[in-house]
Amino acid sequence: MKKKLLQRKSIGVALSVAVASSLFVACSKDQTSSPSGTNAPKATNQPTAAAGITYPLQTQDSLTSWEQINPNLPAFFPNLADSPFGKQLEKETGVKVKYTHPADGQSKDQFNLLIASNNLPDVIEYSWGGTGTAAAYPGGPEKAIADKVILPLNDLINKNAPNLKKLLQQDKELDKMIKTDSGTYYAFPMIRPDNGLVFRGPMLRKDWLDELNLPVPTTIDEWYTVLKAFKEKKGATAPLTAQYSGELNIQDAFIGAYKTANRFYVDDQGKVKYGPIDPQFKDALTLLRKWYAEGLIDKDFALNTDSKTLDNRMVSDTSGATVYLLSAVGKWMDTGKKKDPKYQLVAAPYPTVNKGERAFIGQRDFKYNPAVSKAVSASSKHPDLAVQWMDYAYGQKGAMLFNFGIEGESYTLNNGVPTFTDKMTKDPKYNLQQLISQYTKPNGPFLGDSRKSFNTYKEQDDAVKVWEQTDAAKHVLPGFLTPTVDESKELAKLTTAISSYKEEMFVKFVMGKEPIEKFDEYVKRIKEMGIDNVVKIYQDSLDRYNKR
């Protein structure tokens, strides 16, 4: 026990300096055999008696779960267990769960402290991805299993998760995504529907564009014209703003126009590249520097670390453009229209240099979202029960609860189609996403339903069609690659320092605190820090993934 505690403490030290948010053990023959199949995933029926599992489960045991709380829920309930969703999940599964939620904005630090402790809950919902772009645990799932922090799930899924097992048998692509190169399953996945992969992009004040007789910008030059007009004719003090979450969160808008990315990406030849040292990245920095110097970019962008600041900028006359989530379109239009009935937002394509080009990259995620996966801790006293409880979310009835909530309260079935009730959509004080947070789990390990939509404006439906017109599917590096344990040690040693230095210099270049002429010196420094080794590890991991 003392040895294990010391091991956890050493892990905690590594975690405190690891890259968690910037951009996953050998096992037995039984463990490496994986379900496979060809059909698209569908919600399965309730587990049959033949599978030995029926709900509600007959058990006196309870579970503990550490997971982030939906930011909309605390306005109604402080804990998931107290919400209508939490109570209904307990009723339907027969399992009582005690939830612990990290404080808003402190998830990373509290995850590190949790792992370093000797008191892990039964399940932990966090980023159990594989590459340094996604994994919160240094080394990803292979290392977490080797360190006896989480359990390999192959046998547990085979015995206790008929719903998830069936999905993996039906969908080879999904099956390939959620395991390591050695064939080890490590977490219960969030599975996005095909129409839920694009949900972020550039947006502007449409009412301002109309007033100024300007079209929705599609090129860098058109954006410059629009931002200048917003500043000079609308008095916007931060024409283009964005949230800052360890980096300028513009999802490669503007930067992608130069055929690069502010992260690792895959080029047209299938080779992994680190965008921030590309020669053309200098062009992107030069652009952002020019815009910042002319007052077109929020001068305080590096301080905009919370969504409330962004909310305030976009619903006032401070800012007229940003790159952000689809859900914000509805929220901001609700608020903005109360102040000015003409307030309107419109999505813009990811910009290009030349008119008519297709954007090189943008936001497009994969059906497997590793950022909110649930792993079973090696300390769990009830791993079988934990897996049975989690598997409920992949069955037909469980998926309905996770996606739509409680029938008759949050949704009704109209000719078999789930529709949110007036109670959810016509409240005078709260919007749909705020209200539905009480009845569903918007993010987490469950089977997403393509019929679910939180959109309340046509502008939101139109936005997805605009933002998906990119080549992101070819160029985004998957966040679920699984470096080996040795590779992961090398990544943990190199990536934190590289990422920190890159971001420090990015901010200085954009703000004019470092001359752009130092770009070559900056690239040389990153190469000296070992970026070529990191790129090789990701390339090897991608090659192994493609061969699975």
Automatic annotation (TrEMBL):
Keyword Signal included in the entry's annotation: yes
Domain of life where this protein originates: Bacteria
Alphabetized Pfam families for the sequence: SBP_bac_1
Keyword annotations from UniProtKB, A to Z: Signal
SUPFAM superfamilies named in the record: Periplasmic binding protein-like II (SSF53850)
Signal peptide (from-to): 1-25
Name of the molecule in the record: Extracellular solute-binding protein
